[in-house]
């Protein structure tokens, strides 16, 4: 994404600023605020000549269905926290936490990691070690990172928790896509929105970098041997082009071997 979206020094600077802001201001709505600020800067700074040509997209459903989906999206976003606050029901907490994470995340799936960590680790649903182990397992299999929600839901609420978590985290995307598609063509042709999206895309790269650093780097790379293992596995993945599942298995085997040697 960085190679494609950070095409000049200013966009790189915006990405680094978004990364720093995300790490410094680690609140629930911080990512959304960073994206809005980056969009405003893109609108003010960039020229319409830098915009790609917008292609026409045919939409199969109408505006009534779209508006209904947007209304449902907003109702769930604001009603679920209320239900969670009024009830001690554990499954309301899962529905609210995962739905809100799916609603507020912007960009690549890894941006959702800090949000999920706050929901399940900070609230005591599961330990940080279990969280990171599940993330590693999710990286080893095909599919979007959001499927990680099934592991987290199962770890804290069993089979029903897994089903509820996976539905809750994916549902906002379906509602928003169906809701915005009839209006998307007009939005894409709007040059002001196009300029804003240049800044938004740069901010998304920065948010992904922040997610790479915290919680991943800060939790996994604590000693020189951790860094060495990381570099070796990264080389195997990027240069050797082994499938991710094999890289994860090599990491497990390597950690067991190093533990027997007393290095871990």
SSE topology sketch:
Blueprint: H1 2-5, H2 9-24, H3 30-45, H4 63-86, H5 90-104, H6 112-120, H7 128-139, H8 148-189, H9 191-220, H10 224-238, H11 244-260
Report the principal-axis shape.
globular
The radius of gyration is 20 Å
How many β-strand runs? 0
What structural class results from the helix and strand content? Answer: mainly alpha
Number of helices: 11
Number of domains: 2
Fraction of residues in helices?
over 70%
From the N-terminal CA to the C-terminal CA, the straight-line distance is 34 Å
Low-pLDDT segments, ≥5 res: none
Q: Assess the beta-strand content as a share of residues.
A: under 5%
Q: Would you list the SSEs in sequence order as H and E?
A: HHHHHHHHHHH
* Mean pLDDT score: 86
| Biggest β-sheet strands, sense, barrel | none
């Amino acid at each position: 994404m960085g190679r494609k979206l950070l095409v000049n020094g200013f966009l790189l600077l915006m990405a680094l600023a978004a990364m720093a802001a995300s790490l410094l201001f680690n609140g629930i709505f911080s990512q959304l605020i960073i994206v809005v600020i980056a969009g405003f800067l893109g609108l003010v700074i960039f020229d319409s000549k830098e915009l790609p040509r917008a292609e026409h997209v045919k939409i199969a459903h109408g505006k009534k269905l779209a508006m209904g989906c947007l209304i449902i999206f907003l109702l769930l976003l604001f009603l679920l926290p209320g239900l969670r606050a009024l009830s001690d029901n554990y499954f309301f907490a899962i529905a609210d936490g995962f739905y809100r994470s799916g609603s507020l995340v912007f960009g690549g799936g890894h941006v959702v990691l800090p949000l999920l960590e706050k929901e399940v680790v900070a609230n005591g649903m599961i330990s940080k070690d279990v969280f990171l182990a599940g993330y590693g397992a999710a990286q080893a299999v095909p599919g979007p990172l959001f499927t990680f929600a099934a592991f987290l839901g199962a770890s804290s609420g069993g089979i029903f928790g897994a089903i509820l978590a996976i539905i809750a985290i994916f549902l906002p995307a379906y509602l928003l896509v169906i809701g915005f598609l009839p209006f998307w063509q007009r939005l894409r042709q709007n040059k002001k929105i196009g300029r804003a999206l240049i800044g938004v895309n740069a901010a998304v790269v920065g948010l992904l970098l922040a997610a790479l650093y915290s919680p991943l780097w800060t939790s996994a790379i604590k000693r020189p041997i951790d860094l060495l293992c990381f570099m070796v596995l990264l080389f195997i993945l990027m240069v050797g082009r082994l499938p991710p599942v094999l890289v994860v298995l090599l990491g497990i085997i390597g950690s067991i071997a190093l533990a027997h040697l007393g290095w871990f």
